[in-house]
């Protein structure tokens, strides 16, 4: 049974079917889109006897990798918060109202951080870059152009999955995802670095939100223009 499931789900075109069919669960609950697709990826991992390297886990975490990832995340915060400030001028305010209960609430903030590191940092990176991006690149021929095309498709797909944030949010997240995809593309066996960058980026954002300073960079940019 295990081998049969692995054989079926490992076929090249299955990644496309997964990306097309799992959004249908959104009619039931938005979170089911993510968890159903994540379930497919974990079934493949299970069927491979947990061959993590197939999903980009080819390097061990080190102190240097962690520090470098944090600095990249910090840099991306300044870059993309600036970009999003301009996006809001033309495409409307980014809606993050679903996180408003984090403001000044240390318990919710702490719980959300744990959830973010497990499901956003690890879960989304495992699914969107470790599974979707790698499998699409293989489907398209596994060359440089295939990887670039895969990065573009998955970044747009990831951005659209955040449609609840509004058009400015979709565009900003798509650009952010593409940027991190390019970093992963440079070292396809180092998904851990992408996970760390994602986790640190979200942690900084949540911390700013906790102190109600999430618009600090936005307002500074808007004052300049």
TrEMBL record:
Superkingdom of the organism of origin: Bacteria
Keyword Transmembrane helix in annotation: yes
Spans through the membrane: 12-28, 34-50, 70-91, 106-124, 136-160, 166-184, 191-211
Record's keyword terms, sorted: Membrane, Transmembrane, Transmembrane helix
One of the record's GO molecular function terms: endopeptidase activity
Residue intervals of the CAAX prenyl protease 2/Lysostaphin resistance protein A-like domain: 110-203
GO biological-process terms attached to the record: CAAX-box protein maturation
InterPro entries: Rce1/LyrA-like_dom
UniProt-recorded name of the protein: CAAX prenyl protease 2/Lysostaphin resistance protein A-like domain-containing protein
Species of origin: Aquimarina aggregata
């Amino acid at each position: 049974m295990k081998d049969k499931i692995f054989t079926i789900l490992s076929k090249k075109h299955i990644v496309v079917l997964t990306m097309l069919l799992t959004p249908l669960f959104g009619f039931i609950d938005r979170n089911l889109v993510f968890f159903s697709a994540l379930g497919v990826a974990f079934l493949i991992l299970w069927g491979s006897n947990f061959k993590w390297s197939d999903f980009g886990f080819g390097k061990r975490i080190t102190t240097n990798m962690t520090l470098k990832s944090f600095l990249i995340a910090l840099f991306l915060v300044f870059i993309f918060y600036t970009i999003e400030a301009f996006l809001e001028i033309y495409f409307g305010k980014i809606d993050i109202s679903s996180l408003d209960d984090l403001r000044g609430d240390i318990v919710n903030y702490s719980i959300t951080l744990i959830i973010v590191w497990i499901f956003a940092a690890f879960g989304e990176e495992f699914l969107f870059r470790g599974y979707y991006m790698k499998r699409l690149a293989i489907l398209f021929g596994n060359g440089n152009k295939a990887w670039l095309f895969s990065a573009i498709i998955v970044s747009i797909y990831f951005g659209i999955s955040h449609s609840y944030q509004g058009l400015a949010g979709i565009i900003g997240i798509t650009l952010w995802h593409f940027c991190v995809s390019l970093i992963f593309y440079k070292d396809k066996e180092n998904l851990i670095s992408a996970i760390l960058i994602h986790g640190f980026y979200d942690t900084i954002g949540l911390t700013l939100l906790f102190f109600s300073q999430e618009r600090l960079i936005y307002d500074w940019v808007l004052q300049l223009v």
